[in-house]
Amino acid sequence: MKTYDDLHVVFESLKIAGIMSIEGDICCRTCLHSAGDMICHETEAIGFAGYHIQDVTHCHESNILSIRYHAHEDDDGAATIGRMVADMLDVHGFDVVWDGDPDKVIEVHNVDLTAFPIDDLDEVTELFRGDGKVDPPLRLVQ
Ligand SMILES: [Zn+2]
Fold first, then answer.
1. How many angstroms does the Cα of residue 104 sit away from the middle of ligand 1?
2. Beta carbons of 21 and 15 less than 8 angstroms apart
């Protein structure tokens, strides 16, 4: 079974390849993609990959983690980003389930994230305030 630390190594390697990441500390899919867009905009990234806190919770129950991704300012590039992410996971020994469809998440089926610091839910970023305005995810842009 692969761990949070193993996964972090994959994301660090992807960063070198120009793909930024968000590793769990965000509330939902909408915020993940919005934050990913902002991070790409602030950097030279070609895309981003990551997962949100609900994915972590699901993984705690199933050992299956969904990895989400997209290409910055290039919808046609999503398949390429997905392939880079899937290949990097595969190289690091993750059991990857993905058919190459850029509209589908990449699943990894051998992840134990119980070491993930999920107990500190106050650390999870929510981008959208009650009034519909967006709070800048300053903590995410490093
Ligand atoms: Zn959210």
1. 19
2. yes
